[in-house]
Amino acid sequence: MLARAQDVLAAVVQYSGNDPWISGELFMPRPATSAFCALLALAGTTVSEVSAQTNCQAVLANETLTPVVPGVVRTIVSFDDGSGAGPVFFAGGAMASVGNVARLTPGGWERAGSGLGGAVNALEVIQNGPTPTLFAGGDAGLARWTGSDWELITPSPGTSVTAIVVFDDSSGTGPALHVLAGSSLRKQTGAGWTTVANIQTSSFDRAIERVHVLDNLDPASGRPSIVFAASVFNASIPGQSLIQPASQIVRYDGASVAGLPPAPYGSWIKAAVVFDDTVHGKSLYVTGHGNTAAVSTSIARFDSTTQAWATVGPSIPFTGGAAYGMAVFADGIGTSPHLYAIGSETPIGISPQATIGAWNGSAWKVVSRLGLTNPGGVGYHLGSRAGVLGAARIPALLCVSSPATGGTAVFAVVGCPRCPADINLDGQVSMTDLFLYLEAWFAQRPSADIGSQGLTTQDIFDFIGAWFTPCP
After folding, report:
1. 415-449 tens-digit pLDDT
2. Which of 141, 195, 263, 437 has the fewest Cβ atoms within 10 Å of its own Cβ atom?
């Protein structure tokens, strides 16, 4: 089959704009219309000349996943419960109509089991045994996912659970489940739960996906630490003095609490992740901004050797937008994961137009130039988690945007490996994918702009180049 691209274009350019649909491993009721990474114009080029010339890059899958999730989403996580369905994205929050926790299926978002009473603030996959377990924390306390429903943990550690981690406090009892319930850090013991520290945070930090365990945070003590990077007002150990960390970040090592040194990210913390850039090892990365125009926004890495902060890339003027979310995403590009920064409707500073960028340890790369909605309904944080989706196990990063009318918009960054022209992510390239791309192009959707150079007919030729390229 050596038809030229312009012949195919001529055959389909009369496409009327209908919304074609096929069943299969779709993760939304209406197929995504993605702008993928064909970089070669095909006018006058045969299929055989294209097969090895298409590169792959992470792209925004569509403007938003549809439909929106009912209610306010506070947390997202990817989990494989061993049922054979593969990894599934779960979303938790104040979503009463779906039991406050939903999972993403080929038919859209649906209730996960019988749901949970009260809002869900934290979803975490915990490895504390031979198999991982999905835990949910919120107003109802703490629950685990059995594969078909939620089972409440009794006795309860308390309500308003906002963080869940496994931590070895070096006491000799081994790793144990720790949760932040209200302002109490509680450890699970054979007798139930015991309060080991008090961590008072801002009310905006109900969805704290910013609590992590690090082994090398304090080389002097040699003890691992739980890090709370969440606008901490004060912290204490029962019977010890109260501390008020200047950086609003506090660590707990099983014996004491201490604040980290002041950092260049301003006074409002938006996100924190643990990322290994292959040079410095696992380090804490934090982003935030100041509450005045005079304070810049920065993404910073804590150097455990020097006990000081290093700025990652350029400082971002407060008036130029901020990174409201971060996530470590194994996007399939290269051999190592990348650190992703997600911004709001204004650029995050790594380029004049970037709202999503990826850091490889030495430089930022623009992933998206789309203006994303300011996440005002989720405490000005963009909850984001990476995982895989579909039968082809395509790498995906799901992010929460501002609540739309009656629900929360969620968008996805899709990584590699995948067939670049597989628009609906069903594992194969067909005429349906071609129609879906043309629908997006004729509707002038930003996702049809291949290469982010503006929508032109060249984008159609570029997409057809990817459509002709053989996929594994």
Report:
1. 887 677 777 666 678 888 888 888 888 888 766 77
2. 195
Question: Which residues, listed in sequence order, are joined to residue 327 by a DSSP beta bridge?
Answer: 340
What is the pTM (predicted TM-score) of this model? 0.78
Pair 92, 120: CB distance under 8 Å:
yes
pLDDT band at residue 53 under the 50/70/90 scheme: very low
User: H/E/C letters for each residue in the chain?
Assistant: CCCCHHHHHHHHCCCCCCCCCCCCCCCCCCCCCCCCCCCCCCCCCCHHHCCCCCCCCCEECCCCEEEEEECEEEEEEEECCCCCCCCEEEEEEECHHHCCEEEEECCEEEECCCCCCCCEEEEEEECCCCCCEEEEEECCEEEEECCCCEEECCCCCCCCEEEEEEECCCCCCCCEEEEEECCEEEEEECCEEEEEEEEEECHHHHCCCCEEEECCCCCCCCCCEEEEECCEEEEECCCCCCECCCCCEEEECCCCEEECCCCCCCCEEEEEEEEECCCCCEEEEEEEECCCCCCCEEEEEEECCCCEEEECCCCECHHHCCEEEEEEECCCCCCCCEEEEEECCCCCCCCCCCCEEEECCCCEEEEECCCCCCCHHHCCCCCEEEEEECCCCEEEEEEEEEEECCEEEEEEEECCCCCCCCCCCCCCCCHHHHHHHHHHHHCCCHHHCHHHCCCCHHHHHHHHHHHHCCCC
* Token pair listed for 256: 């004491």
